[in-house]
Specification:
By secondary structure, the chain is an alpha+beta fold. The chain has one domain: Nucleoside diphosphate kinase-like domain (Alpha-Beta Plaits). It has seven helices and four strands; from the N terminus they run βααβααβααβα. A four-stranded antiparallel beta sheet has the order 2-3-1-4. The longest helix is centred in the C-terminal third of the chain and has 12 residues. The two termini are 14 Å apart.
Length: 134
Amino acid sequence: MEKTYVMLKPEALKRNIVGDIISRIERKGLKILEMKTMQLDETIIREHYAHIVDKPFFPEILANMTSGPVLAMIVAGENAVEAMMILCGPTQWNECQPGTIRGDYVTSTGFNVIHRADSIETAQAEIKRFFNTN
């Protein structure tokens, strides 16, 4: 059974859409193995987004990600990484189709409601980062 990392961002918690997103994950046939609410600090956000910390839009991401708690999850199932990629839709909000999580809930890339790992290797690193486990 493949594991992946999923995080509902502060925007999802503020808008009270957590239950719907979790229902979509479960209806897809995936299982939530672990889940916890966390308040992220700048250090872990910089580590998580190390690939974009030098981009001009990073301060907006940092402000958004520290604006409230997130819900961190370990999600498992057959082809869990790819299944979550399909379920979420593309990262760019204007490329998302209705029926995907981002297509139904996101109105700008800066205020995205969900993060999902993009590969098995990334999922393993993110699970370790946020759950201190493999």
